């Protein structure tokens, strides 16, 4: 099985010198501390925030002059580990396009060339990846086979390991001057998908100079070079003129961490940020609709029903709970219309799911609950879930159940949840884990050996369906098998999907090409730029 990079030629860009004036660190954050009455775009412009130049693009025929401007981004969360790429902070590096991986995923979750131009599965446990030539790290050193081996080996030896490598034994070795061999202890058709995880970004040797710490400054290969980390306040990136692909259209990125949702909404509303992550629903009514973009998330709000003990051992009562739900009411009220009614476990973030899904062949008829008492539980950490529980209690009681609620912080309820102490549990669950593939989530939640099997479900037919899907390589056949496994799970009514969540991304009207990625791996890339208008500032 061989994959090539004919769709992504490795054309090196002509080096250029960025000419934009660099703004002071954390200007956005300082602006956000001002009273909202005086927080304005003109204030920032007076501070030299929006100096810009235009340069003719002789490396992109047919394009007009590009603005040599910096993009201001308000990020949702500060880094937890100093932007260590072996942690969840890697997703920030990926969203800023400063760190890159061997593989990237397309919209369907299928692997595509990136720093590897092609790959081949030599046997069930051995893969060969050809490394892209003429790539340099941000410190000027060359991307070599040896450094790819060193970088991936550092990830396999990390404590803790990146999530994508949980339970995976992987060895990497050089194969000549232009390829690496990846060997796994077990057959694993998702090796290319795993290598797309931002936590397996390839970094320069300088990143690993200090034992126990990975420093991403000037160590990536992307179109933007990370030049400064200001703790949990901000980060600064400049255009990297030696990038192996197309030259970035932006002069740089100024990223501020703004955990407060009201402040992020204000930054978008007042023009102190150009792109804003995760605008809260409560702020949307205050913001010009043209600045708001909703992105479907691979996250499903699901009602799990305990199949091993209590009333929901009976399939007919599980069917009664399923019939009692008014999903549309949950979307309209709790989520103010900014969510999608669920048709299955996998939502619109995976467009192929709805295209392949067929009506279920078997549905158990519902019985009358006749006042049977059930315990409905959820947690407070996600603000919407207690509200969902209140409305769901009303719907279930209207159908004849006697509902008792139990709501705690997640840390205080997880062990009881996993032990099957509740009859029903409401959970907002990510359906795509780091591999970009839903099989791992389905195995975890619905297989007999699943580590997150809230419904206590154990069905040999489901295990067989999941095993079939898991053994197939990424592509149409695997996607069809995943939908077949989903149908087998839904027919048990052990899990009743209610809605699929969205995230609201804010973008200034003159921003073009900000990425709206359901997997939250991408946000800004080399093509992101400002629209040229007569009054552009």
UniProtKB/TrEMBL annotation:
It holds the Pfam family SBP_bac_5. Residues 111-451 form the Solute-binding protein family domain. Residues 1-22 are annotated as: Disordered. SUPFAM superfamilies: Periplasmic binding protein-like II. Residues 9-22 have a biased composition (Low complexity). CDD domains: PBP2_NikA_DppA_OppA_like_3 (cd08490). InterPro entries: Peptide/Ni-bd, SBP_5, SBP_5_dom. It comes from the Bacteria. This is ABC transporter substrate-binding protein. It comes from Salinicola lusitanus.
């Amino acid at each position: 099985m061989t994959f090539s990079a004919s769709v992504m030629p490795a054309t090196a860009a002509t080096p250029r010198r960025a000419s934009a004036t660099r703004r002071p660190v954390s200007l956005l954050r300082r602006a956000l501390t001002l009273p909202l009455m005086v927080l304005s775009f003109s204030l920032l412009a007076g501070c030299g925030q929006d100096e810009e130049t235009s340069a003719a693009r002789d490396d992109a025929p047919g394009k007009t002059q590009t603005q040599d401007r910096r993009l201001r981004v308000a990020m949702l969360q500060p880094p937890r580990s100093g932007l260590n790429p072996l942690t969840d902070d890697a997703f920030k590096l990926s969203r800023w396009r400063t760190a890159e991986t061997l593989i990237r995923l397309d919209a369907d979750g299928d692997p595509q060339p990136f720093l590897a131009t092609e790959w081949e599965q030599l046997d069930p446990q051995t893969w060969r990846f050809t490394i892209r030539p003429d790539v340099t790290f941000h410190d000027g050193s060359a991307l070599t086979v040896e450094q790819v081996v060193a970088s991936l080996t550092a990830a396999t030896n990390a404590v803790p390991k990146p999530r994508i490598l949980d339970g995976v034994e992987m060895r990497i070795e050089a194969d000549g001057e232009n390829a690496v061999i990846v060997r796994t202890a077990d057959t694993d058709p998702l090796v290319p998908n795993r290598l797309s995880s931002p936590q397996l970004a390839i970094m320069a040797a300088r990143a690993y100079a200090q034992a126990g710490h990975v420093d991403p400054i000037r160590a990536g290969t992307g179109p933007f070079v990370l030049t400064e980390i200001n703790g949990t306040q901000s980060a600064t990136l400049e255009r990297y003129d030696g990038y192996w692909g197309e030259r970035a259209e932006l002069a740089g990125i100024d990223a501020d961490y703004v955990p407060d949702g009201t402040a992020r909404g204000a930054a978008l509303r007042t023009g102190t940020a150009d792109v804003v992550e995760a605008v809260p629903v409560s702020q949307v009514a205050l913001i010009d609709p043209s600045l708001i973009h909703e992105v479907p998330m691979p996250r499903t709000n699901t009602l799990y029903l305990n199949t091993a003990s209590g009333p929901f051992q009976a399939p007919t009562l599980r069917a009664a709970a399923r019939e009692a739900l008014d999903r549309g009411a949950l979307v309209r009220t709790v989520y103010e219309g900014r969510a999608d009614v669920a048709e299955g476990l996998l939502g619109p973030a995976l467009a192929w799911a709805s295209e392949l899904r067929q009506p279920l062949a078997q549905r158990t008829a519902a019985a009358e609950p006749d006042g049977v008492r059930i315990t409905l539980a959820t947690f407070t950490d996600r603000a919407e879930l207690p509200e969902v529980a209140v409305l769901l209690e009303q719907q279930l009681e209207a159908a004849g159940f006697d509902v008792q609620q139990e709501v705690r912080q997640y840390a205080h309820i997880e062990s009881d949840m996993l032990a099957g102490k509740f009859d029903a549990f409401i959970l907002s669950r990510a359906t795509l884990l780091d591999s970009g593939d839903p099989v791992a989530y389905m195995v975890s939640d619905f297989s007999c050996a699943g580590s997150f099997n809230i419904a206590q479900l154990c069905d040999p037919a489901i295990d067989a369906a999941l095993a079939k899907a898991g053994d197939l390589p990424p592509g149409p056949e695997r996607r069809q098998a995943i939908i077949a496994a989903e149908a087998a799970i839904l027919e048990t009514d052990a899990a009743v999907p209610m809605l699929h969540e969205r995230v609201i991304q804010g973008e200034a009207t003159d921003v073009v090409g900000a990425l709206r990625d359901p997997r939250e791996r991408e946000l800004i890339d080399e093509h992101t730029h400002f629209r040229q208008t007569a009054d552009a500032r």
